[in-house]
């Protein structure tokens, strides 16, 4: 286990469902090795959490919900990237979604459709309407820190385990 993991003191997520959003609790079977640790909800954003606890951006996972329209049909995905990288919304995602314009889902839509708090959105527990597209660098992180469905905690799991989620796939070149 890495040093940052030990410092944060995570506990098995299955033993602390009170620290998870309802959709995440329901999906723990896909990521049985997941851990969780509690944080101050005011620092749930990646940069703030890293700064407050000295966590490296290379172990932080950011999930962004992206939408676009084509011939009146809404198309969506959850793009998962490391905190040190940026999702290529106007290139790769726009082409893969086959839309004229791709953009981040508005906060109200993101929280309502995911059932999660803004700042805690995670691919774990997203419904089938949000296929999960992972940057290949995410897969290679031994212990990845991601949202837990709520702002007051974070999940920690093997990056490769996200591929066990329904609708999850690696997308080459997803980030810059």
UniProtKB/TrEMBL annotation:
Annotated InterPro entries: YbaK/aa-tRNA-synt-asso_dom_sf, YbaK/aa-tRNA-synth-assoc-dom
Positions of the YbaK/aminoacyl-tRNA synthetase-associated domain: 41-163
Protein name (database record): Prolyl-tRNA editing enzyme YbaK/EbsC (Cys-tRNA(Pro) deacylase)
Biological source species: Brooklawnia cerclae
């Amino acid at each position: 286990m890495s040093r940052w993991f030990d410092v944060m003191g995570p506990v098995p997520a299955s033993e602390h469902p009170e620290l998870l959003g309802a959709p995440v609790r329901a999906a723990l079977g896909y990521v049985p090795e997941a851990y969780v640790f509690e944080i101050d909800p005011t620092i749930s954003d990646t940069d703030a959490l890293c700064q407050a606890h000295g966590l490296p951006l290379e172990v932080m996972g950011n999930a962004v919900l992206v939408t676009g329209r084509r011939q009146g049909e809404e198309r969506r995905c959850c793009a998962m990237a490391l905190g040190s990288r940026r999702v290529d919304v106007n290139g790769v995602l726009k082409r893969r979604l086959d839309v004229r314009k791709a953009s981040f889902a508005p906060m109200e839509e993101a929280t309502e459709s995911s059932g999660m708090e803004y700042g805690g959105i995670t691919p774990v527990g997203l419904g089938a309407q949000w296929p999960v597209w992972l940057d290949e660098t995410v897969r290679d992180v031994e212990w990845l820190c991601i949202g837990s469905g709520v702002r007051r905690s974070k999940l920690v799991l093997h990056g490769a385990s996200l591929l066990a989620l329904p609708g999850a796939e690696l997308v080459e070149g997803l980030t810059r």
